[in-house]
Automatic annotation (TrEMBL):
Positions spanned in the full protein: 468 to 595 of 595
Record family assignment: Belongs to the glycosyl hydrolase 28 family.
Protein name: Glycosyl hydrolase family 28 protein
Signal peptide: none
Top-level lineage group: Bacteria
All residue ranges annotated as the CBM6 domain in the record: 4-127
Length: 128
């Protein structure tokens, strides 16, 4: 089971655009965040109170990691999720992060730490 999938193209994007020019993405596209620190994507996900597994599908076609902050309901869960190079923009990888959710609506935000911005973000999945 993969939990519930939330596409990045349906999330709230701060400084970035939905694109579809790199094959292999789910849904209608992915988010290409601007190459700037602080650009972010924020999803609203449903939860029950307690632990959950967050999976983040991304591509980084460079050889430089794109560390990002993963926050749930405004609280940082991972300060430097590495998002290393995947070899090509068409090669998608999944990062797994343990999180804790509240009952009902929760926000999951991925914010670029460096001037290189976020990797391209395809979707998140939340499993409880
Ligand atoms: C390329 C690539 C984009 C990517 C960007 C980046 O332009 O085509 O999909 O987002 O590099 O470096 O972030």
């Amino acid at each position: 089971p993969t939990g519930t999938r939330y596409e990045a193209e349906n999330a709230v994007i701060s400084r970035g655009a939905v694109e579809n020019n790199h094959a292999g993405h789910s849904g209608t596209g992915f988010v290409n965040g601007d190459n700037v620190a602080g650009s972010h994507v924020e999803w609203t996900v449903d939860g029950t109170a307690g632990p959950a597994t967050l999976r983040i599908r991304y591509a980084n076609g460079t050889t430089t990691g794109r560390p990002a902050t993963v926050a749930v309901n405004g609280a940082t869960v991972v300060a430097g999720q590495p998002f290393g190079g995947t070899g090509a923009w068409t090669t998608w990888a999944t990062a797994t992060v343990p999180i804790t959710l509240d009952a009902g609506a929760n926000t999951v935000r991925i914010t670029a730490n460096t001037a290189n911005g976020n990797p391209n973000l395809d979707y998140i999945e939340v499993q409880q």
